[in-house]
Backbone:
């Protein structure tokens, strides 16, 4: 794929999640992260037959107490090293996302980002073959 056919995005953008009440979440583009991650307040695992599921409490807006609760099939569990060097085991879900005009399925690790400025990080796996990042600008796809 030629680089001219990739969407250019800024270092921060908006993501919309159709299966999470069409929530719009402010995200930071993180080319240092392999997998994307999403802020959650709480994750409660449970079984449906032989399948593992998680009930997840989201707080999509940075300065709001509003919570959204949604259940997902567990896609995977991964050991993830944070930028601070700490390794944690995280649940991974797959869900549709819209970034700009692109709609695709994204893998998200679930973790608390309470002390972080952005509710979501968009990692290299989601960027690959879709986006080029212009780190000098933000919200190229609109606010």
Residues:
């Amino acid at each position: 794929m030629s680089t001219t056919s990739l969407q250019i995005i800024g270092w921060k953008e908006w993501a919309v999640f159709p299966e999470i009440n069409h929530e719009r979440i402010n995200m930071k583009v993180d080319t240092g992260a392999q997998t994307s991650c999403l802020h959650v307040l709480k994750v409660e695992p449970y079984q449906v037959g032989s399948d593992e599921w998680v009930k997840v409490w989201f707080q999509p807006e940075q300065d709001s107490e509003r919570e959204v609760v949604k259940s997902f099939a567990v896609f995977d569990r991964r050991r993830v090293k944070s930028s601070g060097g700490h390794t944690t085991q995280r649940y991974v879900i797959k869900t549709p996302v819209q970034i700009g005009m692109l709609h695709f399925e994204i893998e998200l690790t679930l973790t608390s980002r309470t002390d972080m400025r952005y509710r979501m990080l968009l990692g290299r796996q989601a960027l690959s073959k879709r986006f080029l990042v212009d780190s000098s600008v933000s919200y190229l796809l609109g606010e």
Residues 124-127 form the longest helix (4 residues).
